[in-house]
Amino acid sequence: MSDQQIATRIPGRFAVIGEVIAHSQSPQIHTAFAQQFDRSIEYVRLQADADAFAATLHKFFAEGGHGANITLPFKQEAYALCTERSAEAEQAQAVNTIWRTSDWHGANTDGGGFSKDLRANLQVKIHDRTALIIGAGGATRGVLGSLLELRPAQITIANRTLARADELAADFSHLGSIKTLRLDALASFSDAPFDLIIQASSAGHQGALPELAKRLCTATTLCYDLNYGSAAQPFLDWAHSTEAELISDGLGMLVEQAALSFRLWLGLEPATQAVIAKLRGAP
Ligand code: NDP
Fold first, then answer.
1. How far is the CA of 71 from the centre of ligand 1 (A)?
2. For residue 242, which of 218, 207, 225 has the smallest C-alpha distance?
3. pLDDT per residue over 130-183, tens digit each?
4. Can 75 be counted among the known catalytic residues?
5. How many CB atoms lie within 10 A of CB 22?
6. How confident is the model over 180-227, as pLDDT tens digits?
7. What's the pTM value of the predicted model, to 2 decimals?
8. 159 lines ligand 1 (CB under 6 A)
9. How far apart are CA 111 and CA 68, in angstroms?
């Protein structure tokens, strides 16, 4: 029996597990998805301290859990724990979606969610265009493969710790052309502007943003922050101070990655745009 067939038969007890998850929007998102199919699911937030991820996960499944989303800082630990992993999880070396059969199944839907948000919601073309990614942590590793699949002309990764950017470039350069830069080079950047700028660092959680030259972008550049809420604000403020007209936070990515998890667990494909609009405060 395939993973998809097994996932389709299961009922509905789900959780998101992370260290700081009080404000996670995943319960609202998955409940809204389930309502589209007249299903009722239970989706809870499970806080786990740094050393308690595995115990929390095992307890949830032992008590009848059917699927779990994994968030910071446990995606790598989840990857290590899974015995069957999707190609995307292997590429990202991180897992954000888990379900169980006799195996622990791990998938990573972050990259697919990001790519879907760019293509379907923002209708941006990446093919043959240039992209700058700020940050070289787990989030960049998670989206890089999906971004390269869209065949950009070149990706430049800029990071405070250059060695982390170089390591990503080495791991992914068989999929496309990747350059690296020290983060502080962006302050006095004088090369050609980028078609797409992706802010994928966690600096916004400290209310910070690396210094960025305005000439990094033009009016047609998409400025995209993987974060949402207050963590995205410093970059969004900077983007609004430039001539860029297409500016987005990562809320669409959050909903799209959730939709991919929902599909893996339940075999159902929820509509996402109304859920994104509702989270943005639409009536
Ligand atoms: P990591 O901890 O793995 O990496 C953090 C990155 O941010 C590193 O590149 C780090 O640089 C950089 N950084 C941290 N502080 C600063 C600073 N003050 N100035 C410059 N650079 C800084 O985190 P992740 O990659 O997993 O996550 C990054 C962000 O993406 C998070 O805010 C997370 O919430 C968000 N995210 C959003 C998702 C969505 O669904 N929309 C999904 C996944 C993540 P260095 O290497 O030098 O330390």
1. 13
2. 218
3. 999 999 999 999 999 999 999 999 999 999 999 999 999 999 999 999 999 999
4. yes
5. 7
6. 999 999 999 999 999 999 999 999 999 999 999 999 999 999 999 999
7. 0.93
8. yes
9. 18
